[in-house]
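Escalated from tier 1: zinc ion holo job.
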Amino acid sequence: MIKIHATGSSGNFYSLETSTEILILEAGINIKKIKEALDFDLSKVVGCLITHEHKDHSKSVKEVLKCGIDVYMSEGTLKGINLDYDYSHRIPYLLEHNSISKIGGFTVVPFNTQHDVNEPLGFLIHHPELGKILFATDTYYLKNRFNNVDHILIECNYSEDVILQLPAWRARTLKSHMSLETLKETLNSWDLTGVKDIILIHISHDNGEPDRFQKEIQELTGIKTYIGEPGLILE
Ligand SMILES: [Zn+2]
Ligand SMILES: [Zn+2]
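Tier 2 regenerated the structure:
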């Protein structure tokens, strides 16, 4: 199953769970909350993927490593996080665009995303029990096309309607994120045959309109669309 524990600029944490394994996505909330979200049982966790160094995605990387969990990220992200190696027993695995990693039963292929940081990544993840999952957040657009995945977890941060009403500095920050309009164009250019659901993540707290985004994406694609909010579980 796919679980949303925390999403958005106040912290991101998601888990992909099978009967025997858990892959965690991001570590942008404090470690106590991460453990609580996993029912205080880390024994099934096979790894943790980090998209980029912003604190809302990477806050607890060091603590996750200290728990004995393997963490995967790009070299640029590692530099951006500035980890204090002395305290960690484990060194993060470095990922590159289009490389293939086996993490337990999960196969992970990272791809470049477009954001105001060093070397951000998104992930295409496959597991025999879960199918193919696309995970893309904090990216103002995607260069790759992703066809025929099973589940799409994708950022829908704001609508371009609000940009004109915002001060320039605020508009700039928003522009490093995926707008509703860009997401629509993106989904229109993909073959969505076989896609079971779309989960909208990292919706802006101040400038997002979750209900409208959900409705418009579901209408556009004809695919069951969910607002990614804490507590959402997809079986
Ligand atoms: Zn973020
Ligand atoms: Zn970010």
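Residues 210-221 form the longest helix (12 residues).
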